Amino acid sequence: MEAIGNYRFEVKLSADKLEAVIILRAEEEDLDNILIRESDVYEELRKHRVTFGILDNVVQDLCTLPRKFVHAQVTVARGLPPVPGTDGSVEYPYLDSVREESGPKELEDGRVDFYNLTTIPNVVKGQLLARKIPAGQGQPGKSVTGEPIIPKAGRDVIIKPGKNVVQNQERTMIYAAIDGQVSFTDQDKLNVFPVFEVNGDVDFGVGNIDFVGTVVIRGNVLNGFRVKASGDIRVLGSVEGAELIAGGSIEIKSGIVAQDKGSIVAGHDVRTSFIQNANVTAGNQVIVSQSIMFSTVRAGKQILCKGAKGIIIGGVLQAGEKIAARVFGNTSATPTVLEVGVKPELRQELVQIQKELQQVYENLRKTDQGLSVMNQILQTSGELPPDKKMLQIKLTNTRLVLEKECKTLEARKKDVETELKGEGPAAIEAYHVMYPGIKMTFGKLVHFIKHEYARTRFVVLDGEISTATLI
Questions:
Q1: d(CA 93, CA 373)
Q2: What are the pLDDT digits (tens) for 15-30?
Q3: DSSP 281-322
Q4: Which of 12, 52, 190, 356 is the most exposed place for a label (fewest CB within 10 A)?
Q5: Which residues pair with 325 in a beta bridge?
Q6: What is the residue-wise DSSP string for 198-209?
Q7: Is position 332 within any domain?
Q8: Strand 263-266 relative to strand 285-293: parallel, antiparallel, unpaired?
Q9: Closest by alpha carbon to 246, among 271, 220, 224, 277?
Q10: In this model, does residue 112 exceed pLDDT 60?
Q11: Model pTM?
């Protein structure tokens, strides 16, 4: 701070150096005699290393109307903020219609075309399935002192090949290795599976099915039967109290009436028209066009029941990100439990991976110690006895196995941490009405609905469950 004539300047920089302010200090009796030259202002700025983004009009005003600026904090320079990089992404040239589905499509006559919603495209060997779009690096900024500001790079995306697909050398594209149908399995791995079709019901004439691929059933799945597929399961009829297990998605055109028997488990999505007295689990989303009644439904990300009749009554529903429906509950206040915002299976897996990694690290340390002893013997005597030689070979092979195991665990740990970091704010959305009788849980926060809410979104804000009106 230096005095210049009968006034002085103060120059302050913001913490990020993207803004500089100037304050004119002068006594009241000196205001009429103040004469400020622009060169004096620029010189004062230079003393504070402010050389970029200077607002010339502010400098001119300061010199013309100094009384206006006395003891006032005025922005005199603005830097250029950095532009953060865009996050990486994956394009699916032939799968966009599958990946971008958010609900059933409505036909011109008002009916819901649920069958076409769940179509899985056939692909041929060599067909491009996925293309990685790299993360952007952003554009650097510049501080008022002229220094470059490094932008935050976009978050990279991991492209995940599964079964019967190949990648290019750069690992930026995935191609089909066989003819078949595309299936996304756990952790969004992309696969191509062959197809097994049943032209009627799964009954005593067909028996249980266990197929390494995608299963298409053109009838119903009856009580007590089991269908297992490493890819997707598509049922054009209904499912009763049966057991369906798919590594990919499960799509049931006519709905599920389980009578509290059997279970539906999908690594990716479950799509159907209604769920009644059933146990349904999906790694990603559960998408229902009509109703979920008195069922236990779990989804890693979202449970959506947003059709024209979309209603959820009774049961327990758990989702990592969101539960949304047109109507929750009924006028009889039927008990219904909604839980969002928790991914316990992922957190448990992360703890287990960390334990396994610690054990692998310890085994690697012991193996390296043994190899170090062998090397010391070799350097001292010039050769190893036969028994020591065999031990060296065994330790070397053990280390190769441990290194491979370590890389696998570290890669999975990174995937799990990325998924947990990607958790957005959890929400419960009622697009028409939510009736009393609902118990909602956001992590450790619990709230009981005691009166009706119309078009309401429930979220956690500042540690409390709050509401907002849906437009």
A1: 55
A2: 999 999 999 888 766 6
A3: EESSEEEEEEEEES-EEEESSEEEE-STT-EEESSEEEESSE
A4: 12
A5: 305, 430
A6: ESS-BSTTT--E
A7: no
A8: unpaired
A9: 271
A10: no
A11: 0.59
How is residue 118 written in tokens? 């769940």
In a domain, 426, yes or no: no
At residue 66, does pLDDT exceed 60? Answer: yes
Total domain count for the chain? 3
Half-sphere exposure of 417 (CA within 13 A, CB side): 10
- Residue closest to 249 by CA, chosen among 266, 263, 237, 265: 266
Same domain for 98 and 171, yes or no, is: yes
Q: Give the Cα separation of 106 and 63 in Å (integer).
A: 67
Least confident of 220-229, 279-288, 410-419: 410-419
Q: What is the CA radius of gyration of the chain?
A: 32
For residue 10, what is the DSSP state?
Answer: E
Write the pLDDT tens digit of every residue in 173-217.
999 998 888 888 877 888 888 888 888 999 888 889 988 788 999
* Domain extent for 47: 2-78
* Run of H or E residues at 456: strand 453-461
**Residue 467 in domain:** no
Q: Is residue 263 part of a domain?
A: no
Paired residues of 21 in beta bridges? 12, 75
Q: Are strands 122-123 and 128-133 parallel, antiparallel or unpaired?
A: unpaired
Residue 294: closest CA among 318, 315, 323: 315
Work out the pLDDT band at 121, boundaries 50, 70, 90. low
Does one domain contain both 106 and 163? yes
At 76 the three-state DSSP class reads strand
Contact at 8 Å (CB) between 269 and 282?
yes
- Does 71 share its domain with 147? no
Single out the residue in 392, 414, 436 at which a domain terminates. Answer: 414
Q: Are residues 12 and 51 in the same domain?
A: yes
Q: 3-class SS at 129?
A: strand
Confidence of residue 118 (pLDDT cuts 50, 70, 90): very low
What was the pLDDT predicted at 272?
96
Rounded to whole angstroms, the Cα distance separating 18 from 143 reads 5
Backbone angles phi, psi at 41, to 5 degrees: -65, -45
359-368 residue pLDDT tens: 999 999 999 9
Cα–Cα distance between 324 and 124 in angstroms, integer? 37
For range 350-376, the mean pLDDT: 89
pLDDT digits (tens, 9 = 90+) for 244-283: 999 999 999 999 999 999 999 999 999 999 999 999 999 9
Query: How many residues does this entry show for the chain?
Result: 471
Structure tokens given for 349: 């897996």
CB atoms within 10 A of CB 131: 15
**Whether the predicted pLDDT of 103 surpasses 50:** no
CB of 292 within 8 A of CB of 317? yes
